[in-house]
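Memo to structure team: turn this sequence into structure tokens by end of day. - J.P.
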Amino acid sequence: MNHSRLFEELLIELQALINSPHEYDLIKSSRVLRQLLIDGDALIHLVNQDLRAAPRFVVQIHPKEAAEDFSPAIYPAGESGERVELRLQEFLKHSLGADGEEKITVRDVIKYAATVLGGVHFKAEEKTKHRRLAEIHSARDENGESYVLTALKHIGAITRDAIIPMRDLLLDRQKFESGKGWTVILSLRLLSAPPDEENYILDVGANENVNRFSIYVDSRQQLTFRIIDSSGSRKYLRTGLVGGAVPIERPIIILCELSTVDDETLLSIRTDGWDHAEVVRGVSLQNIGNPFHFVTGSDCLGKKNTFHDEFGSMLIARPLNSLEIAQSIAYFAEKAASATRWVSFTGNQFLYSTGHPNFEPHKA
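Reply from structure team:
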């Protein structure tokens, strides 16, 4: 595995770990952050030798909160708060609090989580600062969550946002704007589903077993993307628990793209706090959405139930360029924010594309 591929895999792993509700996973994210940002030559530098990118780490500045002299919530959220763009070394030196006159930095939090919480030894000269971080870690917030691990989650999210543009350069995403494929943008609000029942949102394709792309909340309450290729092989991408990593009863945007150029296919999926993209070589994905049959609100046979409110959608049989995507997302986000009416899918209610082979033609 070369550095570029390792970089892509670590980004995938980082997103899964910081979206997890388990402390163990958050602690493990510190190892990924060390590989990406700190250890040795740091993977971000090795990858950037050819890219010549200038990653920016955007940090929110606000009054001290939570534990005394420690502010873990540094990820920009909403429209409030002052923000600053930092280079990598500035970001690692950014202060979240103080131990007397000495700052507790982003680097300190990552190293403390990796070496102390991760069960590895630490240097004697770091004991004082680690003792202070241990006190902060023990002082839980009103939800019983560690301030240190909250900081680690925010550091991970800032890092994710900073390195996604580098990943896109590695994948040469721009060339896929002229490819053959499709784009889906959904503006919706997930609703609670009955226990142990799948909550279907979208199904692209007409065959259950091949050339199919599905979005649903699985029986474990995780927002799931399933890809079934031309051979019937299945791949699952999960963004995290609904109500935790993914908001419930609050508007979200889901963007999915599939584009083929020559023998390469770009698969891209984005939603709140989660961004996945990969290039697959060969013909395994090229017939998903060709022809572009789809169902919203159920599966490709109309058997599954759904529970969500939809404010707007775009399902189009071509890739969009970056400007079109940005404009469409802004439009649908604004529409959701100001909506007084929407389509409510509850139970076995769904829509399907014209000419879908699995449904009887509509008769007047």
